[in-house]
Amino acid sequence: MKEKITIRPLKLSDVDSCLSMINSLVEERAMISIQKKMTRKQEEEYLKKTLKEVKDKKHVAFVIDINGKVAGISGISKTDSETRSHLGDIGIFLKKGVRGMGLGEKLFRKTMNEGIKKLKFKIVHLTVFANNKTAMNLYKKLGFVKIGTIKDGFKYYGKYGDCVIMVKYV
Ligand SMILES: CC(C)(COP(=O)(O)OP(=O)(O)OC[C@H]1O[C@@H](n2cnc3c(N)ncnc32)[C@H](O)[C@@H]1OP(=O)(O)O)[C@@H](O)C(=O)NCCC(=O)NCCS
Fold this sequence. Notes:
Layout: E1 5-9, H1 15-28, H2 40-55, E2 59-66, E3 69-77, E4 87-94, H3 103-119, E5 123-129, H4 133-141, E6 145-156, E7 159-169
Coenzyme A (COA) binds at residues 30-32, 92-94, 99-105, 128, 132-135, 137-138, 141.
């Protein structure tokens, strides 16, 4: 069967494919902030919270949809602080098997551009594990600059690792 690939907004009915994607990344130890498998209830709550933030104009979230199943997700959000409402915090992950084909870059661009347009961000920032070269290459390609490193800023499966902070001025 020919694959139908689209980038579209996140929706609540994505819960099962999001759950299976996130748990596959946890199993893989893919250098993301989640270290424990999620339950369906936790994932459903997370999606409901995210979609409420989308409705409240605090979050923009897109997914890569392959034949109706989520294969990647990206979100950009603001904090509750009014003084930082021009700052967007962005993140992304794709499941194994669909990486390295240009989809991550497309999804990231879409999320960032929609965030800037809809939520009026002036600065986009992110954190990344210092040894995640693939992700850092993507961010550098899209104009992000490394502004610093928090030594031992991540604790991942009991071991400390450096956390890189990257920023892009729009
Ligand atoms: C990081 C991630 C989002 C990149 O998405 P992707 O679809 O794999 O990347 P793309 O194919 O769109 O490539 C975009 C750029 O990323 C970089 N990149 C991609 N694969 C790479 C690899 N294997 N090695 C080094 N750089 C790589 C390159 O700069 C590439 O641009 P180029 O093709 O012009 O060289 C994806 O690999 C992923 O989800 N990884 C696991 C989770 C993760 O690390 N998330 C980020 C946490 S901060």
